[in-house]
Amino acid sequence: MKVLVTGGTGFVGTNLIKRLLKDGHEVISVDNYSTGVKENEQKGCQYYNFDISERDVPYGRMYWPKSTKVIDEVGYPDVIFHMAALARIQPSLEHPASHIKNNFNSTLHILELARKKNIPVVYAGSSSVHCGLYGSPYAWSKYGGEELCRLYSSVYDTPTAICRFYNVYGPHQILGSEYAAVIGIWIDQYKKGEPLTITDEGEQRRDFTHIDDIVDGLVKCGDGLLGENSSEIRGEVFELGRGVNHSMNEIVDMFGEHPRKYIPARKGEYPVTLCEDTKAHELLGWKPIVDIKDYIKEWLSENN
Fold first, then answer.
1. Lowest pLDDT segment from 48-62, 120-134, 176-190
2. What is the bridge-based pairing of β-strands 121-126 and 26-31?
3. pLDDT, tens digit, for every residue of 10-65?
4. Which run of H or E residues covers position 163?
5. 52 falls within a domain
6. Is 163 exposed, middle or buried (0-12, 13-18, 19+ CB in 10 A)?
7. 220 in a domain, yes or no?
8. CATH number at residue 284
9. Containing domain of residue 34, as a range?
10. Is 262 inside a domain boundary?
11. CA dihedral in degrees (145, 146, 148, 151; nearest 10)?
């Protein structure tokens, strides 16, 4: 099977490509490398440096930038995993226009490609929608992408499904950057011998989900759209969260006797995330298995 992954050198995209290649699929990546890195490229995947938020994906008679291949030679994919996005709430508060433009337009262009060839699309949503659409440009932009998926599914019968992520962590996560999530920030601080920073009083709770579980949910969703019972999957929203949450203080405790530092609360943060929806379990047969306690324990044993 031929698979197109957008954002293929990012955190989620890289892990997804590794799984798809392992499963024996032909994989194509499109990424503008704004937050993804070349070091994440996997042997066996075809990578193209292209910004899908700027214009339509150049399938047909057009050429990829810096490439002599006409995309007809690559061929149309059987399914698209649209993972590309400018992530994180805090950067979106600083740069709202770029986040909204990138996240909304890239989804629109991918859906236009999918509409023309009736290609199934699995869209990377965000659990931030549960904490207020107008809490940040990031939350709004990701929900806007969901609405586009629903629109194209309803009007054009384009096969789409949405997977919302809950606080993802694991291999290839971003470290030491404004786009790093909290686990990546703490791992980076721990490695540098710096105090682990905790915002506010540290009692806000998060549902942390390992990247391997997220990837498994994405693959099952894509398989479902291509399967005999695709009508049950089309147009659905799947919440990919472990269903257990921890306070920031509890997570930092897992790092042992390491210094911590409390800093002021940041605008756009929310008090609780917790996945309580079981639709992914029931329709996809998805079950998260990795516990963050085990992940941190294993990481510490390998890095001490």
1. 48-62
2. unpaired
3. 999 999 999 999 999 999 999 999 889 999 999 999 998 888 888 666 554 434 44
4. strand 160-165
5. yes
6. buried
7. yes
8. 3.40.50.720
9. 2-169+209-241+276-290
10. no
11. 180
